[in-house]
Amino acid sequence: MRICRLEVSGTLRGDEARTILEQLRPGGHLHGMPRLFALQRVDSISSDARGAIGKGGLDGVEAWEAIVVTNPLVRVTANFIVRIYGRTKTRLFSGEPEALQWLDARVRVDMAARPGTA
Predict the structure, then answer these.
(1) Cα–Cα–Cα angle for 46, 55, 91, nearest 5°?
(2) Phi then psi dihedrals of residue 115, to 5 deg
């Protein structure tokens, strides 16, 4: 199965967050696809980006998501978003190998549970 790998660096701005969210929502090219967010090089998330995510930005975009984040401040923000929005299919990691292993396992379980997809 294909997955989406999104690597972000520097400051995540509001316009970037909105563009990403458009692709993740129903009708977007990445909707429903398992995702690996590589945020190891993110320095900060702008208030505009946090607002875009918070104003219904995550509605309808639930899929398996592994977020790799090493910056302690960005990790706090990401963890807050995961918890406050009840992202049950999302997990944070400090390294990409374990994130990919976890994501692969989740996708395989889902595929085995759906007839005709294994």
Answers:
(1) 70
(2) -60, 140
Q: What is the pTM of this model?
A: 0.85
DSSP string across 70-104: --HHHHHHHHHHHHHTT-TTEEEESSHHHHHHHHH
The separation between the first and the last C-alpha atoms of the chain, rounded to the nearest angstrom, is 10
Q: Rounded to whole angstroms, what are the CA distances from 103 to 3, 91, 113, 115?
A: 9, 9, 16, 20
pLDDT tens, position by position, 52-85: 887 765 666 678 999 999 999 999 988 988 888 8
SS3 label, residue 117: coil
Q: What is the DSSP letter of 29?
A: T
